[in-house]
Amino acid sequence: MSGKPLFPRPIAHRGLHDRANGVIENSASAFEAAIAAGYDIECDLQLTSDGVPVVFHDDDLARLTGRTGKVSDITAEEMTRLPLLESSAGDCPMTFADFLARIDGRTLLQVELKRQQGPATPKLAREAAEIASTYPGPLVFESFDPAQIMLVRKFGYLGPTGIITYRYEDENADFSAPQRFFLRHMLHLPFSRFDFLSVHHEALTLPMVRIMRRLGKPVTTWTIRSREDALAARPHVDQIVFEGFTPERPN
């Protein structure tokens, strides 16, 4: 890609959060801290029971709110009234619409569409695309799920889309061996037609990652947690997604 870089500044993973000091991931406080420090922002979208995208990483409520159950079990109104555990500011999760209104174009947003089940997959893509359609600032969508990338474009999103990937080497209940091969080698490219990659830092030397970058697709890497890891990743990437330290910013 030519011209201005797609990812000009380091990207704060779920905002510039610091739980020890009461700043919780994917919270208003974490996002304001990232903007104040001059970083771009990565965040996550889940879908509530009434079909509203909310800025929240886990599909389960327990780790971040102390409440049992799933995000998909409660309404957006209930979700946005749940205090985030240990938040010194009393932050609660935000809807995607409220999040965009707060950020208001002040920094680039790398927004992950989390994997959903069944009809929630197109619902999240449709709602996210519709909400983003009037947003005036820089925003990109990404997902581990190639279907989400295809769907968000189908529903009218015109900006850059990215595939999130890693080595897909460990056997697990989520993917069969053929599915892992398909995802690791990005055989969905003719359909997903992604514009950039977001790659786990241990997968940066995978052949398809290297090929895609040579073909001009920007690569971000997650999650970088030290200056040493940032230096090691630098030859292979266009930008880092970081947490737990403050990387240098370009002048």
Structure description:
The chain is of the alpha/beta class and 251 residues long. It has one domain (11-242): Phosphatidylinositol (PI) phosphodiesterase (TIM Barrel, Alpha-Beta Barrel), CATH 3.20.20. The protein is 30% helix and 18% strand. It has 10 helices and 10 strands. It has helices spanning 28-37, 62-65, 76-79, 96-103, 120-132, 146-154, 177-184, 189-192, 207-214, 227-233, and strands spanning 11-13, 40-47, 53-55, 94-95, 109-113, 139-143, 161-165, 196-200, 219-224, 239-242. The chain has an 8-stranded parallel β-barrel, surrounded by 5 helices. Helix 5 packs across helix 6 (146-154). The longest helix is centred in the middle third of the chain and has 13 residues, at 120-132. The model has no long low-confidence stretch (mean pLDDT 96). Residues 8-251 form the GP-PDE domain. This is Glycerophosphodiester phosphodiesterase.
